[in-house]
Amino acid sequence: MASNTLVSRRGPGRARRREADESRQRTLISPAQLGRPRGKVLYWIIFAVVVAAFTLAFLGPLYWMVTGGLKTTQEVVQSPPSAFPSSVHTENYSRAWTVMGLSKLLFNTLYYAFGALAFQLVLDVAAAYSLSKLRPMFGKVILGMMLATLMIPATVLVVPQYLTVLDVPIFERNLLNSPWAIWLPSVTNAFNIFLLKRFFDSIPGELLDAAAIDGASPLRTLRSIILPISRPILGVVSIFAVVGVWKDFLWPMLTLPDPAKQTLNVGIYSLSNGVPQNVLIAALTIASVPTLLIFLLFQRNIMSGLTAGGLKG
Fold first, then answer.
1. I need a surface site. Which of 4, 104, 114, 207 has the fewest CB within 10 A?
2. For residue 259, cis peptide bond before it (omega within 30 degrees of 0)
3. C-alpha distances in angstroms, 100 versus 41, 55, 80, 274?
4. Range of weakest confidence among 30-34, 63-67, 173-177, 179-183
5. pLDDT averaged over every residue in the chain
């Protein structure tokens, strides 16, 4: 009788644990179905179809752009288009580089991008640090107003920003055709400030208390403690800053009408009517290479930086 009672007591507990394990493993396809031969075949078929569809959707345009720069003009405009070039014309890329003056446009874009990066690293880090650790008066209200700007479409802000750049209040300066027209609007990046603040919130307060006991000022604490352990999120913000200026088109087109000061995207658009289609596609491919390399080289840093502030510890 005692043994039967012990078994009966253990039975419900084991059943509950078994149900809990099954609930944690519950997916679109149950482990039992996946263990059958038919379930495995169905799973791998669906997996292959989904991966192929996403690969075609994302890499298809890139392949079309790269191969379009290797075709002749007749092959580019023919209908239906050809999937492969009949003969490879690599001279289209060298022609695009010289005819469209991509070296000057590339230098301008790098100058604007890294200038915006420098301003964002200084001002956005200072704003996020003050909101996270210094706790100013009405800090939550200021942060809420910053995040509220993310709900406003960027195109809505184009007209007021352009009027501001055209005649800067108080200073009464016209910033058109100057790098300040690119740098100053890029500093007001609420998303980067939010990312930095979230990471700074995850830094233990004991480190700051220990620094304060040793007599370190808030600026010294930021320079000696916060920034060295914030390299992942600083890398993410840096990549976002550079890519944001690199891929922007509308704002540089409005504020940089001088052809000698235009960015890569605007310069290619301005010269698009005077070159053949295959040379234009080759120029677009060259303009896309730097951002693709940045993503391929730093994709692990991007993911680690975005998730670094998710847990406190």
1. 4
2. no
3. 52, 32, 28, 9
4. 30-34
5. 84
